[in-house]
Amino acid sequence: MKPSILLTLTATAASTSAFTLPFKFRRDTISTEASNTTPNHRLLHSPPTNVVGNARGRIKAASTINNRPSFLRAGSYLPYHPPAATPDHPYQNQDMIQSVTGSLIIPTISMPVSGPTAGNSVGEYSASLWVGIDGASATDSFTHPIANATCNPLAASLRAGVDIFWDGTLGGQQTPYVWAQWYPAEHARGFLDFKASPGDELRFTVTTGPHGNSGGGVLVENYGPPQSPKGVDGKVKIPIATGSLIWKDMPPLCSAQASWILEDFPLQERPELPSALGNFTDVRFSEMGFATWLGGNFTGEDVLAKDKLKMLEIYDAGQGGTLARCKTDGEGEKKSVVCSRVVEA
To answer: Is 263 among the residues known to form the active site?
Structure first.
């Protein structure tokens, strides 16, 4: 545990004001080359408005079997409960999550080969991967230390991520879409001219303002194909693209969960149903960590200990049952969370 370092970020964002963030910001190195950074479709980064139905096709409805409800979010999260106040530390019971970090390699996506949604060669399949504060689960009881009231971590979240698509009408074209969102206050925002391809390594840093209620910011860095820690030819590893957004005067967060998530969102044109989940290569969340407002910095085993980190899996009976399952993998600094695509009734 060590103190966080606070530096100032000024960037083109939801607010034009500078905001204090606990990370070092590098100036944009976005390529000026023309590129198609917008997929043929967009995901609506909110839950489906209707989870009843069974139409087979490019979108598959969620339903229930044996009274098991659909759950469209896999990955992992760590609930944070501040320690009790003591005479020497009278305010530590008001400690909250300040920032969350995580890295992943953009997976490839394809048409599923098994399950009810398989074999639609002219369909669209997708998946969304994100790192954030809150937004993982409502199962943990949490009392906001400032408001002294029960707070639901699913009600609001700050997150940044990447959507992946497979479009059969375009010959299986894949165009990852990198985004950030203060949910539910606004729709997801993309980053201007941010280039990303399957196989690229992305690093996300997501930060709130004091007590989760005065705004926040995100930084996304694309390092291209995985490199050694010192980069190519022994040089320091430098991102090939960066994107940042900042907010102020936003609805409060619980700031109670550090989240690394794989989610099945609806397509924007069909908000009532989850999109058909694609058959993606394994997703590995690495370099997982979070910091708190009173200086706590948690990484490695502090995050990945089995008695702390909670795992989620996607279950949708309409698409075949369990669709994604996650586990911890590796040792030491290489320990991470890996999520795999499955079809299990």
So the answer is: yes
